[in-house]
Write a structure and sequence with these properties.
Layout (H helix, E strand, L loop, with lengths): L5 E6 L3 H12 L4 E5 L5 H6 L1 H17 L20 H13 L4 H7 L2 E4 L3 E4 L2 E4 L2 E10 L3 E3 L27 E5 L3 H12 L3 E5 L11 H13 L3 E3 L2 E9 L2 E8 L4 E6 L1 E4 L3 E3 L6 H4 L3 E2 L2 E2 L12 E3 L10 H16 L12 E4 L4 E6 L2 H8 L4 E6 L4 H6 L5 E6 L5 E8 L2 H13 L19 H16 L2 H10 L1
Parallel strand pairs: 1-2, 1-6, 2-3, 6-18, 8-9, 8-14, 9-10
Antiparallel strand pairs: 4-5, 5-6, 7-15, 11-12, 12-13, 16-17, 19-20, 20-23, 21-22, 22-23
Helix pairs in contact: 1-9, 3-4, 3-6
Length: 475
Amino acid sequence: MAKFDYDLLVLGGGAAGLVSSKVALGFGKSVAVIEKGKLGGECTNFGCIPSKALIRTAKAAHELKQLDTLGLTTEAPIAINTGGVMRHVRSIVEKVYNTHLPASFKALGIDLSFGDPQFTDNRTVVMDGKVITANKIIIATGSSPLIPAIEGIDKTPYLTNSTVFSLDTLPRSLVVLGGGPIGIELASAFNRLGVETTVVEMFDRILFREDRELADMLAGKMRGEGLNIVTSAKAVKLSGDASRIILTVETQDGQRKDITAQSIFIALGRKPNIDGLDLEKAGVRCNKNGIEVDEWLRTSADNIYACGDVAGPYRFSHMAEYQAILACSNAFLPIKRRADYSDLIWCTFTDPELAHAGLTEEEARTAHGDAIKVLRFDYSKIDRARTDIEEFGMSKIILDKKGKIIGAHILGMHASEVLHEIQLAKHFNIPFERIWQAIHLYPSYSDVIRQPSKYHYAAKMGNNPIIKLLKKVIR
């Protein structure tokens, strides 16, 4: 049997790469990781962590302006200085980064190096003149901001999530190109921090992958806070300099108009990090969406697997971790498991949050027709929401004709946390009407799940033929 330097070589030190390397180490395998930039990847350094820190700061600024809703007054109007915001955000990134320093992985026995690897065959890469061989390889190189082919963009300065958190001061005004999760999260935060912000979205609404009813509710709230949202508008030209940019958009009726701001933030999706890897030399097929993998996350080269953003189809850190465990297990264990995305879950971390599990109402009606049942429960009916002055929002539970949970969406305070209760019920096939039977804390936001579960149970019992018969007998 051929001798290799390592049992496993992982390309990429983000969420997928770090998790897969630790799983392999747990299997007793020798492991090496090559990272091009900084450990932690996109999420730690340019995505999840800095954006959530910015959103939290923006929420604090928003609350300061609404102290009167809590019965508090100030002697003079509050003036907020945002000069230290980005330094604070970077300090949070550093704090999280320090939890997985290179030395900690080397201490575990994982060989870690930094550079640009290239394949020479399906078991060999070269980096800085050094040849590294491995029996199995996992590609987890992540993704980068997708830059559109807009006229003038190559001559105009722009921001992406890779550069925006390096700012020392906030811009006076900002155009956010893209109404998806990244664009909307940062747009709403900047707007609350006093930046005159305009979102430009090509579709007829923001967050087009979300349940339309809840996405529209969220858009209405953000507009009420002063965020300008322009939909059904395609960007066709960009010009300007570091002090002023002009974005020309075209509406559906062919009209063109200019939107002016100090800066522009591009948030139009992601592209896989595959350039320079020489994948063809390893026999690994790819396309514009990333590396092609089968249901076991194996590439067209039998000994090479791919996971995380570079493989997709869902680019979230929690999905990268799920795929990493699966890819590593399939690479080394005799029993193989297929990737199963039926319990996919995510959240757009605006304030309030919009959490998503399973099918939207639109998707459910397409798949199941009008046999579905949609249950709604408003945050305004929850005592805990009343105490916190967080009464905006709604839960929306979608059941099929047999009462099985096929979708759940929550817009409101702590939506990302509350959704996990119904995610567990969905995953373990627990009937929705049984959730309320478990004792829940009071007062808590869990009522947006418990209460509709209770009402659904009561309605179901009321329609039970035996119960109906007993009612007649009693009468």
